[in-house]
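quick one, three chains, predict together pls
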Amino acid sequence: MSINRREFLKRSALVAAAAAIGVDSILGNTIKTIDKTGEAGTLQTKGSVAWHKSVCRLCGVGCGVMLGVKDGKPFGIKGDSENTINKGLLCVKGFYLHKMITAKNRLLYPMIRKNGKLERASWEEALNLVASKFKEIKEKHGPDALAFYGSGQAETEETYIANKLFKGHIGTNNVEGNPRLCMASAVGGYTTTFGADEPVGTYDDIDHSDLFLLIGSNTAEAHPVIYDRIVSRKKKNPATKVIIIDPRKTPTNKIADLHLQVIPGYDLAIMNAIAKILIDENLVDEQFIKESVNFSDGTNPITYDDYKKFLGKFTPEYAAEKSGVDAKDIIKAARMFGESQAAMTMWTMGVNQRVAGVFLNNLIHNIHLLTGKLGKPGSDSFSLTGQPNACGGVREGGGLSHLLPGHRVIANEQHRKEIAAIWNVPPDAIKPEPGKHTMAMFDAVAKGEIKGIYIMCTNPAQSLPNLNKYLKGMEDAFMVVAESFHPTETSKLAHVVLPASFWGEKEGVYGCTERRSQHMVKALNPPGEAKWDADILIEIATRMGYGKNFEHYTSAESIWNEYLKTTKGKDMDLTGATYARLRKLRGLTWPVPNENHPGTWHRFTEGDPMLPKEKAAGKRMYFYTKPDGKAVVFARPDKGPEEPVSAEYPYVLTTGRILEQWHTMTMTGQVPELLRAAPKPYAEINPEDAKKLGVSNKELIKVTTKRGSLKVEARVIDRPRKGTIFMPFHWPESLTNILTIDAVDAGSKEPEFKICAAKIERA
Amino acid sequence: MIIASMIVKTMLGKAEEVTLKLNKLPNISTHGIYKEDNIIVVIEAEKEEELESFAKYMSSEINDVLGVYPTFISADSE
Amino acid sequence: MLKKYFLILSLIIGILLVYGFTDSGQVKKGDKHPKVDWEIGCQECHKDATPEVYVKWEASRHGEVNFGCYICHGDGQEVFYKKGKDDRCEGCHSTQAEDMKKTKNKSCFNCHNGHSLKFHN
């Protein structure tokens, strides 16, 4: 036998054995070796890569990601091929996560502002300063002079600790997070319609759907892996249709069969018109309506007939006139939706970041309730979440001023008692009134009513609307910023900056769009003196005198286990999602009430472990989070935008995102390849508008709203609807948000980032 | 010429001891310990009898082995 | 005379040293991309500069989801590879990379065209 053949056979033998025990590659694991002389060693130190299972740090899709570590340093990123969400695929941003970990602007040590400048300080000095100043403010001005502003990118464990410290111990409900700026309207829609937050189905419905209605979502750029699943579905089942309702043509249009290019802000009429057509043309599920649907005008219950009368004015012609879309396209969309076997509506910021956000969310749920397209494979009204842990940490963990962990609310006395018991504080320790929502909070900071604020893992000095109103307040207040990168627009203004561990450097759980909680491993040590956010908060708690209730936490797992207690028996029961299971599995979708439960696909129907079987008997769906098990169809008026166009400001300014950048670029802006895709800030202008203004491509233009003015490069492209311009908000050197309006939805308190009035001139 | 690979599963914590013993055998090579107690073993035997004696050795002489799981075998009649 | 020689020599060495170190602000890895207007993105320039390649890419699966040139070729200034490298495919296609190891092929590009991604084309 020649040596080659022998070697080949040996190689094959090794590969087969490795495959049998599920080892990715012989060289790619933490393995021990013992050679013939009996010397023990670790291949890892000899330059091999260890791959760790984790979840992407960026958007709300929740892609499984493998972080490669070599010699204690981040080496590379691979998609996790076993994760059911992305099956190994990634988008361009996730691909470069390892470069973000080692970015040059990582913050390595604490800083305190002395004589107007941020100077390096020790942890002792910084923590003592924060604790003593917070104590002083609380004693002099009361606990509500303090506030916490967290993030949908923080781990659930981190948000849980912050919530417990501020609401349970310091005694203020001024605990907010940036999901207020993106998902609050979706939360409002779900809780008013169904009685509880978050979607009924999961991503698996995509693989069974025949029709996708995408509203206010540029899925191809903002949720690329979900877009890919829709594309795959369409390729597999060519009869699948895609309808888009959006003022802008986007890369998502590549798969669109019908595009209703609406005037921004006037799409509610279309949703009501679609509901009217569904009823008129008998495309509704009368049985389902009888069993599982109530009707309301927002204040009082109404009857089905009242609702039909209400819809009377929303003829296709009326909606067409309001929205600038063809009446026959509205009819076509309604019929496509009604006649499909299974339909999924997906939406994101275009629907949520509106003063009519909650109303529009309700109208989307309406058409699914009327047609019974809910709770069965392929049918769902499925809100796309923006951030990786807005669902898990903030919505489920109760990190907003009116919430408590486990889908509870501050206003409910029983809820407060239950959480106080778990937090080991007196039953009346939690204030009964909700705290200030985000915009009210920063308004109070601007007015000096809130004197101390702790900001964790977010960048409000770039991401708040109508920025100029709030910046000075942030600078004047005692603002503590816990951040992994510096400088950011917010850390630049801070009084104290604390270096926080980044993704890959801390263990914890992220809960994504489809109710899936997934575990992230600690694969690296943080650089410099950076600490885990939860540890930082526990240190502050201890120094403020609350150590007794925080000293028992020995690990991320111990915090998670306490949090699990808050979910027991609730609609979002996570008791079965122990770290032991989460480490092995690719996450679990709640409710998962015990350790043998595999997780839930559809809520409120058979298969949902929390379904009360006797009450639900005979009905396909029973919404047990409503007192009588029925979801609500709301007769909502077609409310328009807060700031419609005028003679002086004739254009609609709408803001948004691009594929290659994430939010305020603190992370993705550190990757040269991602910068290469769009190196400069720009504004998209419709070619007809450009012609009228005499603006050519790449020319500098001045965009002005009532709140500010920006000079930016024009990109003349047939994407935004005529009369609309689109500006991404990513670049810190061109703060789009000085132009946007801070008017909020009355129910959700979410600002209308998507619509304001602007004028355009050549610069 | 027979080339075969297998996974030798040991009692928890005993993998290193067993590996040392296996390394002393002729024609046996070990290729690392995975997931705490799985050893990848490759055997290059000239004759079938050698495989047999290896199997006998595994079952009688070495304690702490929970199982031997063959994963690959090739033989040719050159 | 000797002094003059030394002076000139050290001047030359000095100049060389300065030149040698001035460009080190950039971490240059890989090949050199011709100097261009770095204010625009890759696709924008290459649409006109290399239309055959651009058209192939646009029609491919990567073009469909707007996976830009930089994924395989680097950003151009700090990192640039004239030919896309295999390890950049592995990030999303690790299963296929493992499968390929079982074959005789050493590179994804043995079979796949880098731009159209088509098999043997």
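The radius of gyration of chain A is 26 Å.
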